[in-house]
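Quick one, C-alpha coordinates below:
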Protein backbone atom coordinates (compact mmCIF):
# COMPACT_ATOMS: atom_id res chain seq x y z
CA UNK A 1 0.00 0.00 0.00
CA UNK A 2 1.12 3.56 -0.73
CA UNK A 3 0.73 5.75 2.37
CA UNK A 4 1.19 9.50 2.73
CA UNK A 5 1.87 10.79 6.25
CA UNK A 6 1.55 14.50 7.01
CA UNK A 7 2.95 15.65 10.34
CA UNK A 8 5.44 12.79 10.09
CA UNK A 9 8.02 14.33 12.43
CA UNK A 10 5.55 14.88 15.29
CA UNK A 11 5.06 12.51 18.20
CA UNK A 12 2.16 10.53 16.74
CA UNK A 13 3.23 10.90 13.11
CA UNK A 14 6.68 9.44 13.77
CA UNK A 15 5.13 6.29 15.19
CA UNK A 16 2.60 5.94 12.36
CA UNK A 17 5.50 6.06 9.89
CA UNK A 18 7.39 3.41 11.89
CA UNK A 19 4.39 1.07 11.99
CA UNK A 20 3.72 1.42 8.28
CA UNK A 21 7.34 0.75 7.36
CA UNK A 22 7.46 -2.26 9.67
CA UNK A 23 4.60 -3.75 7.65
CA UNK A 24 6.52 -3.02 4.43
CA UNK A 25 4.17 -0.38 3.04
CA UNK A 26 5.67 2.37 0.94
CA UNK A 27 5.52 5.60 2.93
CA UNK A 28 5.82 9.15 1.61
CA UNK A 29 6.28 12.04 4.03
CA UNK A 30 6.00 15.74 3.28
CA UNK A 31 8.20 17.68 5.69
CA UNK A 32 9.60 21.19 5.86
CA UNK A 33 12.87 20.01 7.38
CA UNK A 34 13.95 16.59 6.01
CA UNK A 35 16.79 16.37 8.53
CA UNK A 36 14.18 15.91 11.25
CA UNK A 37 13.12 12.62 9.69
CA UNK A 38 15.63 10.28 11.29
CA UNK A 39 14.57 7.16 9.39
CA UNK A 40 16.56 5.33 6.73
CA UNK A 41 14.37 2.82 4.91
CA UNK A 42 14.16 1.83 1.26
CA UNK A 43 10.35 2.11 1.45
CA UNK A 44 10.43 5.71 2.69
CA UNK A 45 10.25 8.69 0.34
CA UNK A 46 10.95 12.09 1.90
CA UNK A 47 9.63 15.13 0.07
CA UNK A 48 10.64 18.57 1.28
CA UNK A 49 7.73 20.96 1.20
CA UNK A 50 4.93 22.65 3.04
CA UNK A 51 1.33 21.53 3.58
CA UNK A 52 0.25 25.11 2.86
CA UNK A 53 1.59 24.84 -0.68
CA UNK A 54 -0.85 23.16 -3.09
CA UNK A 55 1.89 22.02 -5.48
CA UNK A 56 3.87 20.40 -2.65
CA UNK A 57 0.78 18.47 -1.54
CA UNK A 58 0.11 17.33 -5.10
CA UNK A 59 3.70 16.05 -5.43
CA UNK A 60 3.42 14.11 -2.20
CA UNK A 61 -0.08 12.72 -2.67
CA UNK A 62 0.40 11.62 -6.27
CA UNK A 63 0.64 7.85 -5.70
CA UNK A 64 -1.06 7.56 -2.30
CA UNK A 65 -3.80 5.04 -1.50
CA UNK A 66 -4.46 6.51 1.93
CA UNK A 67 -3.56 9.76 3.71
CA UNK A 68 -2.70 10.14 7.40
CA UNK A 69 -2.65 13.62 8.91
CA UNK A 70 -0.99 13.92 12.30
CA UNK A 71 -0.45 17.65 11.91
CA UNK A 72 -0.71 19.64 15.13
CA UNK A 73 -1.81 23.20 15.71
CA UNK A 74 1.51 24.70 16.87
CA UNK A 75 -0.24 27.95 17.72
CA UNK A 76 -1.08 28.54 14.05
CA UNK A 77 -3.94 27.96 11.61
CA UNK A 78 -1.96 25.42 9.57
CA UNK A 79 -4.56 22.73 10.22
CA UNK A 80 -7.54 24.61 8.85
CA UNK A 81 -5.58 26.24 6.03
CA UNK A 82 -4.05 23.00 4.79
CA UNK A 83 -7.13 20.77 4.90
CA UNK A 84 -8.92 22.37 1.91
CA UNK A 85 -5.71 21.88 -0.11
CA UNK A 86 -5.44 18.25 1.00
CA UNK A 87 -9.09 17.57 0.18
CA UNK A 88 -8.76 19.15 -3.27
CA UNK A 89 -5.63 17.13 -4.06
CA UNK A 90 -7.37 13.93 -2.93
CA UNK A 91 -10.31 14.68 -5.19
CA UNK A 92 -7.99 15.28 -8.14
CA UNK A 93 -6.15 12.00 -7.59
CA UNK A 94 -9.28 9.98 -6.80
CA UNK A 95 -8.12 9.15 -3.26
CA UNK A 96 -10.94 8.52 -0.79
CA UNK A 97 -9.42 7.52 2.55
CA UNK A 98 -8.03 10.02 5.07
CA UNK A 99 -7.33 9.35 8.75
CA UNK A 100 -6.52 12.30 10.97
CA UNK A 101 -5.53 12.85 14.59
CA UNK A 102 -7.78 15.40 16.27
CA UNK A 103 -8.51 16.20 19.90
CA UNK A 104 -11.09 15.04 22.43
CA UNK A 105 -12.34 18.63 22.51
CA UNK A 106 -14.25 18.11 19.25
CA UNK A 107 -16.16 15.08 20.53
CA UNK A 108 -19.73 15.53 21.72
CA UNK A 109 -20.15 16.54 25.36
CA UNK A 110 -21.68 13.84 27.54
CA UNK A 111 -23.19 16.49 29.81
CA UNK A 112 -24.61 18.59 26.96
CA UNK A 113 -24.88 16.31 23.89
CA UNK A 114 -25.88 19.14 21.55
CA UNK A 115 -22.46 20.81 21.86
CA UNK A 116 -18.83 19.75 21.67
CA UNK A 117 -16.66 19.06 24.71
CA UNK A 118 -14.50 22.16 24.24
CA UNK A 119 -17.66 24.29 24.19
CA UNK A 120 -18.83 22.86 27.52
CA UNK A 121 -17.67 22.70 31.13
CA UNK A 122 -16.61 19.11 30.47
CA UNK A 123 -13.31 20.32 29.03
CA UNK A 124 -10.75 21.53 31.58
CA UNK A 125 -8.62 23.40 29.07
CA UNK A 126 -8.64 27.16 29.54
CA UNK A 127 -7.67 27.84 25.93
CA UNK A 128 -9.98 26.63 23.17
CA UNK A 129 -7.79 27.79 20.28
CA UNK A 130 -6.46 24.34 19.35
CA UNK A 131 -9.91 22.75 19.62
CA UNK A 132 -11.35 25.46 17.40
CA UNK A 133 -8.74 24.64 14.75
CA UNK A 134 -9.60 20.94 14.93
CA UNK A 135 -13.30 21.85 14.78
CA UNK A 136 -12.73 23.67 11.49
CA UNK A 137 -11.02 20.57 10.09
CA UNK A 138 -13.89 18.38 11.31
CA UNK A 139 -16.39 20.65 9.55
CA UNK A 140 -14.38 20.56 6.31
CA UNK A 141 -14.22 16.77 6.36
CA UNK A 142 -17.94 16.52 7.14
CA UNK A 143 -18.67 18.61 4.06
CA UNK A 144 -16.42 16.46 1.88
CA UNK A 145 -17.19 13.18 0.12
CA UNK A 146 -14.06 11.53 1.51
CA UNK A 147 -13.99 8.43 3.70
CA UNK A 148 -12.58 10.17 6.76
CA UNK A 149 -11.94 9.14 10.35
CA UNK A 150 -10.82 11.52 13.09
CA UNK A 151 -9.10 9.85 16.05
CA UNK A 152 -9.65 12.06 19.09
CA UNK A 153 -7.31 11.39 22.02
CA UNK A 154 -7.61 13.10 25.36
CA UNK A 155 -4.47 14.12 27.36
CA UNK A 156 -1.56 12.64 25.40
CA UNK A 157 1.56 11.83 27.47
CA UNK A 158 4.41 9.90 25.86
CA UNK A 159 3.91 6.93 28.19
CA UNK A 160 4.40 3.27 27.31
CA UNK A 161 2.60 1.16 24.76
CA UNK A 162 -0.07 -0.89 26.52
CA UNK A 163 -2.13 -2.07 23.56
CA UNK A 164 -5.27 -1.98 25.69
CA UNK A 165 -7.56 1.05 25.58
CA UNK A 166 -11.17 2.08 25.11
CA UNK A 167 -12.66 3.68 22.02
CA UNK A 168 -16.12 5.12 21.47
CA UNK A 169 -17.81 6.71 18.50
CA UNK A 170 -18.34 10.49 18.76
CA UNK A 171 -17.72 10.75 22.53
CA UNK A 172 -14.83 10.22 24.94
CA UNK A 173 -15.05 6.90 26.83
CA UNK A 174 -16.60 7.65 30.20
CA UNK A 175 -14.04 8.68 32.82
CA UNK A 176 -11.22 8.71 30.28
CA UNK A 177 -8.39 11.06 31.24
CA UNK A 178 -5.38 10.07 29.12
CA UNK A 179 -3.99 7.86 26.37
CA UNK A 180 -0.33 7.45 25.41
CA UNK A 181 1.14 8.66 22.13
CA UNK A 182 2.09 5.07 21.28
CA UNK A 183 -1.39 3.64 21.79
CA UNK A 184 -2.95 6.55 19.90
CA UNK A 185 -0.60 5.88 16.98
CA UNK A 186 -1.40 2.18 17.07
CA UNK A 187 -5.17 2.70 16.88
CA UNK A 188 -4.83 5.43 14.25
CA UNK A 189 -2.65 3.23 12.06
CA UNK A 190 -5.04 0.29 12.38
CA UNK A 191 -7.75 2.32 10.67
CA UNK A 192 -6.22 1.54 7.26
CA UNK A 193 -7.66 -1.97 7.68
CA UNK A 194 -10.83 -1.05 9.57
CA UNK A 195 -13.94 0.51 8.03
CA UNK A 196 -15.85 0.65 11.33
CA UNK A 197 -15.31 4.36 11.90
CA UNK A 198 -15.60 5.88 8.44
CA UNK A 199 -17.12 9.36 8.48
CA UNK A 200 -16.98 9.61 12.26
CA UNK A 201 -14.91 10.83 15.20
CA UNK A 202 -13.51 8.27 17.63
CA UNK A 203 -12.78 9.05 21.25
CA UNK A 204 -9.84 7.10 22.67
CA UNK A 205 -8.59 6.76 26.26
CA UNK A 206 -7.62 4.23 28.90
Amino acid sequence: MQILVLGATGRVGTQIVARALKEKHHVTVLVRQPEKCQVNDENLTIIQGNVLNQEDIKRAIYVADVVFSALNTDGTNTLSKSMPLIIEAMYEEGIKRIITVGTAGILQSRLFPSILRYQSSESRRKSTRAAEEHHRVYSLLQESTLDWTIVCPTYLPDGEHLGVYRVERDVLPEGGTEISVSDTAEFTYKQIKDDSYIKTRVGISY
